[in-house]
Write a structure and sequence with these properties.
The complex is a heterodimer of chains A (146) and B (400). In chain A, 31% of the residues lie in helices and 32% in strands. Chain A is elongated, with a radius of gyration of 24 Å. Chain A starts with a helix and ends with a strand. With 146 residues, chain A is α+β, with helices and mostly antiparallel strands. Chain A is built from 1 helix and 11 strands. Chain B folds into 2 domains: 2-109 and 251-399, no CATH class; 113-244. In chain B, the strands form 2 sheets. Chain B has a 3-stranded antiparallel β-sheet, with helices on one face. A two-stranded antiparallel sheet of chain B has the order 4-5. The longest helix of chain B is centred in the last third of the chain and has 34 residues, at 302-335. In chain B, 46% of the residues are buried. The chains are: A alpha+beta (146), B mainly alpha (400). The A-B interface holds A 1-3, 5-7, 9-14, 16-21, 23-28 and B 5-8, 11-12, 14-15, 18-19, 22, 25-26, 61, 64-65, 68, 72, 282-288, 309-311, 313-314, 317, 320-321, 324, 327-328.
């Protein structure tokens, strides 16, 4: 009696413990995700934004939205690992980076094939960004707003 | 149905009901007492959990993870030695009460933060008392027996030591004692603790206390000089001990090749390894293996018994449970401030190191030193102390 019960129960027993561990890890995961989202929300409220103001030839009708600069370093490019992904053949894999340092936002072209324009001039070296600056990446024009 | 299974407390309940149901059939004739004791303990744990969530007393996972570990321990102990298991259930009940009391105490009182030297001298007094009137049990003089009750002071010293280190490391300005900076005085105090454990032949506690100190120094990160000096001392003393002291020479030899003298000196380790190996993935089932061949199986070697009867999956589950327990501990430490931050860090580090030292010893990863596995091993002092430490963590998490 006991032997049969014990040999059957061992499987259920181990399953129950692992489901228990899984349930706790799941709760912890939800907990952390909630915290991260809260932080991102707070950061997004006060961060400057990149607003899409237009496309040069009006050929593209994708989403025209605001990108909050909620991290201290942002890369724009065509690959998924970029913080802002742009599906545009004229944009390089990693095209341009924006970063926050000494209380200022900086911009630097990451040696992209077709270049980055800031207020109509192509940039070769890092620049400081001011409110209202217009950045052109590929076909897309973005306005930097504090 | 699946939604219910996502709640840890329901799974805790299911596991407990299965364990005590199985233990009811283990003895011939079946003993209703175990059902009653099990029921009372499950109710107490549920009530404690209910209090924690209902009144928002901080972290809700710590207690339930620890309770799961105790359940596994009780299941093994009742199977190994029925009387020992029943005693452990009583200690478990006392532990839950102490847990709630400590949690409330550390939540509402603050005077415990500035008693650095009170903690030190209390622990020295306890250790001297052990030297004077202590009883030797299996090679280590670490028990005080008063009128039928036996008590292990080194377990209480563990908490005092954590509070002592925490109140030192959280200070911004350090005093000087006789023109010596405080950090050197504290280092000396740590060596005093270690010296007492050497006198008692309690190598496990000595290693545990010293490693806790090293980890805290590393986390504090202010005095690399002291950390480097201590690491050199470890290297030097360790080398001398491993080559000169006969007692430790035997242990190192056993660690390197337990099968060289499998019938005598390596008996414990080899039996433990055989038990783990015979467990396979799912184990033999509770009560169907032969873990009773391992000496000290109910205290130090309970992990090998778990591996034999619940399989390597059961053993991994125990380690995973400790992982999430320690993760929660460090998360509490990150959120806390001042002395509380350091208390939480040191207590969590102690749990982690203690688990590593004994599981490492049992699977022959590091030289074996006798020490209890927190929450699982048999021992009233050990279990109640673990619950008090957990209560301190819980109390700290209330405030953050």
């Amino acid at each position: 009696m006991f032997n049969v019960l014990s040999s059957v129960l061992r499987y259920i027993f181990i399953t129950a413990i692992y489901v228990f561990i899984f349930a706790i890890i799941r709760m912890i995961y939800k907990d952390i995700r909630g915290m991260v989202q809260q932080e991102e929300y707070v950061a997004a409220q006060s961060a400057p934004i990149l607003r899409v103001i237009g496309y040069r030839d009006n050929s593209y009708h994708g989403p025209r939205n605001d990108y909050p600069l909620s991290k201290s370093k942002i890369v724009i490019g065509r690959t998924k690992s970029c913080d802002i992904m742009v599906e545009d053949m004229l944009v390089s894999n990693k095209h341009v980076s924006l970063w926050f340092e000494d209380n200022e936002w900086h911009i630097r072209d990451l040696k992209s094939r077709n270049g980055t324009w800031l207020n109509g001039t192509r940039i070769e070296e890092p620049y400081l960004l001011d409110d209202g600056d217009v950045i052109r990446v590929g076909e897309m024009e973005l306005e930097f707003k504090v | 149905m699946l939604k219910i299974l996502q709640k840890p407390i329901i799974l805790f309940l299911i596991t407990n009901v299965m364990v005590f149901g199985l233990l009811y059939f283990y003895r011939q004739p079946a003993d209703a007492y175990i059902l009653m004791a099990g029921g009372v303990v499950i109710l107490m744990a549920l009530m404690a959990y209910f209090c924690l969530t209902r009144f928002n007393w901080g972290d809700e996972y710590l207690f339930i993870i620890a309770s799961m570990l105790v359940t596994l321990g009780v299941a093994m102990l009742c199977r190994l030695n029925y009387n020992v298991g029943v005693k452990q259930i009583i200690w478990y009940a006392l532990g839950i009460i102490m847990f709630i009391c400590t949690c409330i105490f550390f939540r509402y009182f603050n005077f415990w933060k500035n008693l650095q030297w009170v903690y030190f001298w209390t622990s020295v007094a306890l250790l001297i008392l052990t030297q004077l009137v202590g009883t030797t049990v299996s090679g280590a003089k670490n028990w005080i027996i008063v009128g039928g009750f036996s008590f292990q002071p080194s377990e209480a010293v563990k908490i005092l030591y954590a509070l002592f280190l925490a109140s030192h490391f959280s200070k911004q300005n350090h005093k000087k004692y006789f023109d010596i900076p405080e950090k050197w005085v504290v280092m000396l105090a740590v060596y005093v603790y270690c010296a007492f454990f050497v006198l008692q032949h309690e190598w496990g506690s000595m290693v545990l206390f010293f490693l806790t100190y090293l980890v805290t120094l590393f986390v504090h990160g202010s005095s690399w000089k002291i950390l480097a000096l201590n690491l050199m001392v470890v290297g030097g003393v360790g080398w001398v001990a491993a080559t000169q002291v006969s007692h430790i020479k035997v242990r190192v030899a056993n660690w390197l090749d337990p099968f060289a003298d499998a019938a005598n000196r390596g008996y414990q380790t080899t039996q433990s390894l055989f038990a783990i190996a015979s467990g396979n993935f799912f184990g033999s089932g509770i009560g169907l293996g032969k873990p009773q061949f391992i000496p000290e199986v109910h205290s130090d070697f309970i992990f090998s018994a778990i591996c034999e009867e619940m399989g390597i999956l059961g053993g991994c589950a125990v380690i995973l449970l400790f992982f999430i327990l320690i993760y929660r501990g460090f998360k509490i430490a990150l959120a806390a401030r001042g002395t509380e931050k350091w208390t939480a860090t040191i207590i969590t580090a102690t749990f982690g190191l203690q688990t590593f030292i004994i599981i490492g010893g049992v699977i022959n990863l590091i030289p074996l030193t006798g020490i209890t596995l927190p929450f699982i091993s048999y021992g009233g002092s050990s279990l109640v102390t673990a619950f008090i430490s957990l209560g301190i963590l819980q109390g700290i998490s209330c405030k953050a």
